[in-house]
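Target protein
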Amino acid sequence: MFDLLITDARLTDGREGQDIAVLGDRIAEVGAGLAARGAQARERIDAAGQLVSPPFVDAHFHMDATLSWGLPRVNRSGTLLEGIALWGELKPTLTADAIIERAMAYCDWAVARGLLAVRTHVDTCDPRLLAVEALLEVRRKVAPWLDLQLVAFPQDGILRYDPARDKPGCTDSAFDLLKKALDLGVDVVGGIPHFERTMDSGRESVRLLAEEAARRGLRVDMHCDETDDPLSRHIETLTHETQRLGLQGRVNGSHLTSMHSMDNYYVSKLIPLMAEAQVSATANPLINITIQGRHDTYPKRRGMTRVPELLAGGVEVAFGHDCVMDPWYSLGSADMLEVAHMGLHVAQMTGEAAMRQCFAAVTEAPARILGLEGYGVAPGCFADFVLLQARDPIEAIRLRAARLVVVRRGRVVATAPRQASTLALDGRPASVDFMIRRPG
């Protein structure tokens, strides 16, 4: 007797008519005809030929700032630097309860969207480490239904920020604060080298942070080169430190938007170096297309990093949501299919295989970058998956498909009605659901 049986599912690899049997919190069997052969379960869900996918994963987010849009004011220029300044204005007024309340609300949205794993950066440039302690509490609260991975992120730079500015008499350095956050249980070492005062300081920050990660045996995820400046090349330093310290497969470079403007010859050298060092990349399509190119007139750069070229060069690439209703971005709703949809357009990934890569960029690829254990729809994996109102990953992106059922550790944690519109047109169907049905 199984606990849950999903029947007649399509999987992301194209298999049809698949049954998924769950026992406890793990997938016990996947195959055609399990129900027909008499498999019994306490709960049964008919997928009706629709797509069952592993859950969505967001490899790059800022949960300490989420849902704070308009506090204390709106980012009028839409630039990264005004967003950082605005966050600096907001930070002294924050309370742990407010951060927790907004983060918990966002996690509710995430579960409803089938987003069951998030890597969030948390600002350590605060002598109180207020956001760190708040998100550690959120991580504990949401653990039964969402994997929350925290990155120690020195928003104002580990060499640039002086904690005594915010707390006179404080003797800790910004690097000390980051290390304290790691001591409290933050999972990943972050950084922002392009925001340090000089290029040399940026390179030094990468070295210090990578060495700290190596000493502690932690992963690394740095904001790298989130700028239109083609001479911002801190990803090169991060790749070198990865090789030097033996961190292969544990390091991610986020944003990498300067690569959009770099010389093609230099990029032809850089991408193989990243692949050799097993450094992954996370692009953030909604935010990169919004924030980058703000100093351009026309032509205006798209700003997102070179996703197709990175993939072709053997670099693991994920898409992140980055921001939702915060000082940098006024929109968003925890929908990773919206992220994939934007990434597909900005990167011009319109071929069939490329569109499937965009779906993988919000599921399988970020799961590997986060090092999630037991991820996938296969025997032995955790029973975490999403039933989508779509027949394949491409249709799911096109429709931003409804998450009909979300399952976490074998338990249904969210459901949604089918999307359809009722028509009152003579001689035409009574309703439409926007799905294409081809004969045969």
Notes: The mean pLDDT is 97. The CA atoms of residues 22 and 290 lie 42 Å apart. Residues 199-216 form the longest helix (18 residues).
